[in-house]
Amino acid sequence: MRRVYLDNNATTRMDPRVLEAMSPHFLQDFGNASSIHEFGQQAREAVETARQAVADLIGCLPKEIVFTSGGTESDNTAIRGIAAGHSGKGRHLITTTIEHPAVLRTMERLEEEGFQVTYLPVDRQGLIRLDDLRAAVREDTILISVMHANNETGAIQDLRAVGRLARKKGILFHSDAVQSAGKIPVDVNDLGVDLLTLSAHKIHGPKGVGALYIRHGVEMKSLLLGGSHERGRRGGTENVPGIVGLGKAAALARKGLADFDLRVRSLRDRLETGLLERIPQARINGSTLRRMPHTTNLSFRGVEGEALLISLDLQGIAVSTGAACSSGSLEPSHVLKAMGFQNRRVESALRLSLSRMTIEEEIATALDVLPSTVQRMRELSPLYRESRNRVQREGQRAHS
Amino acid sequence: MYSEKARELIRELPNRGSLAGATHTARAENPACGDITHLYLKLNQDVVVDSRFETYGCPAAIAASAAVTQMCRNLRSGECREITAESILDYLGGLPSHKLHAVDLAVDVLRKALRSNEP
Question: Which of A270, A315, A360, A396 is the most buried (most CB within 10 A)?
């Protein structure tokens, strides 16, 4: 069976060149980057080369990059670090309802600890409104955290506008750019962010490593206490092979940005257009104007997304869904719910996400298999039959 | 992970669709998760000679409904009543732990269908 991977927002296949770059650092150049002997200094050099590559990707200074264990740690560090370091100035934070759980759960924990958090709503396109942000800002606001691109819909927030407002009000600004960095141009100065989260495994790097950009001069408390690693901002021996992998992945991603936008966007558009043409009553969820070039989120009326996902999986196609039925209750996507969609539309949502490694044959196979699978699931679906009958009755009434 | 049997049922969707000439039918819904199942049975001299299902729901709900249509074939109505959540789970070779509730919907629709033609 030919396998098709269209779940690249969950994770990506590692680039063989990344693996090749990492390999010597397991068996041969295995030194601790904090050691002053040659083993250690080789490791240090490798870490600093990677730091430069990550800095180049997002347009910052190498010393503004802190390596972490991934996006979740970066988000936790940014938010908790600023909250702890600036609680004397204020105890109010602003974020959005569609953030990754790494941000949402951290904000909730801060609320339990006495901080106040405003969660900005989004519109049907999945975008925040600047007016809402303006209205949410208070004298005691210490941090605004708005994700760059959403992992479910690919909707891209206007960070420049958020950054301008934050700067004007003297509020620090963090963005989770895990889904955008390395896929579209991300420049921290252009966007006006003070802290930015990124992750290796979303850009064909290894799992378990990421980075946090902290603008020079931003004061914050460390989350992980220990040695003076990462200029005292993150205790713990550096994950040298992982960091080297992130550095290589960042360098490759930077080099491939233009190609990503052209080639991957073209494949995504072919997939999306083809599905909309072949499957009646299919709808795009979220903005199509401000959207990542590799993501589409579609709802297929009358088909339960998880059932469709497993049916596709049994045919070798990996995708993701917007809701899961768990222990007798529905856990709908908080993102699609926040966009104002009813449960049935959320339940029937499928996310298809491509990468630079996606090939035309995968798109062709998906276009071949998905429509017939949806059709088959609809034949099974009493909900779809009931809805079709209702539409027919209404049509007949309109004609009579 | 789904068992090989559950995967087979989800892949093949045996006995899917409605059944013309059904003598017993029922609809059941899980209001919490929104799954809906229709069961169609055709009984001849108290024996299930045909059975079909339609389900809108998660893969476990589909597998459990399909399992019921297979399990009740050629059984007398009294024997069908002895089909339980446990026996469906056995037939399926188990379900993921967070999906166990799916068999309750299948049992519910079967019981309702068997009652649907009672005088």
Answer: A315
